[in-house]
Amino acid sequence: KQEVTQIPAALSVPEGENLVLNCSFTDSAIYNLQWFRQDPGKGLTSLLLIQSSQREQTSGRLNASLDKSSGRSTLYIAASQPGDSATYLCAVSGVSGGGADGLTFGKGTHLIIQP
Amino acid sequence: DGGITQSPKYLFRKEGQNVTLSCEQNLNHDAMYWYRQDPGQGLRLIYYSQIVNDFQKGDIAEGYSVSREKKESFPLTVTSAQKNPTAFYLCASSTTGASGANVLTFGAGSRLTVL
Questions:
Q1: Residue B47's CB: how many other CB atoms inside 10 A?
Q2: Residue B35 dihedral angles phi and psi, to the nearest 5°
Q3: How do residues A9-36 score in pLDDT, each as one tens digit?
Q4: Are strands B10-13 and B110-114 parallel, antiparallel or unpaired?
Q5: Which of A83, A113, B9, B59 has the highest CB neighbour number within 10 Å of its CB?
Q6: Do B101 and A99 touch (CB under 8 A)?
Q7: Which residue from B9, B7, B12 is spatially nearest to B86, judged by alpha carbons?
């Protein structure tokens, strides 16, 4: 059964720093990997999607990488801002079930950017 | 605007009562999903449906029921058999097919509290 682990569970850094969030998964047979942002009491907002054939995706100050063979992904946030404070969730899509059988989520990294 | 609407946003229930959470999407997505989120935990899949009139159990289906009579709607009933129903419930949808598989769009969530 797929398991997704996110490290660290919580992170607090001063504004302006670059930071890296880590995600690992146990089964490398995936369709894609997604990073989501969740604000308190809200739904999830998709940040980046990396298909299994890709190595990385970039959106603004965010860069996500995928090393499928080692079961790892990183989310790099450049020049962090207080508005980046949120919980960041990593999720993988398995190839079983036709690829539309839902995602397996990590528990998230709770990020606080200090002004 | 296309999106997913969940209602109600907050719901209180007495023990022993069944409650139904609504999820409606106008994205023309074939697949829909229900997840449960507990504090400090990742999302866990309750049920999913890849097509109208068909649905599958996820990892934690016990005490829950769903229906998929229309493409746009995927209501979740939390029954009295669910022993610990207090949680944040998230609905999502996606297209099917390898390119769009499990690229989920989420609703804003419904918070259920059992009194």
A1: 23
A2: -120, 155
A3: 999 999 999 999 999 999 998 888 999 9
A4: parallel
A5: A113
A6: yes
A7: B12
Is B80 part of the contact surface with chain A (CB cutoff 8 Å)?
no
Residue B71 — very low, low, confident or very high, per pLDDT cuts 50/70/90? very high
Q: Give the pLDDT of residue B18.
A: 93
Q: What is the DSSP letter of A17?
A: -
The torsion region of residue A67 among left (phi > 0), alpha (psi -120 to 50) and beta comes to: beta
- State yes or no: cis peptide before A40, omega within 30 of 0: no
The CA-based angle B5-A94-B61, given to 5 degrees, is 55
| DSSP code of residue A83 | G
Reading the block at residue A6, the tokens are: 């996110």
Q: Residue A51's closest chain B neighbor by CA? A: B99
Cβ A31–B106 below 8 Å, yes or no? no
Look up residue A10 and give its two tokens.
């919580």
8 Å CB contact between B96 and B37: no
| pLDDT tens digits along A56-92 | 999 999 999 999 999 999 999 999 999 999 999 999 9
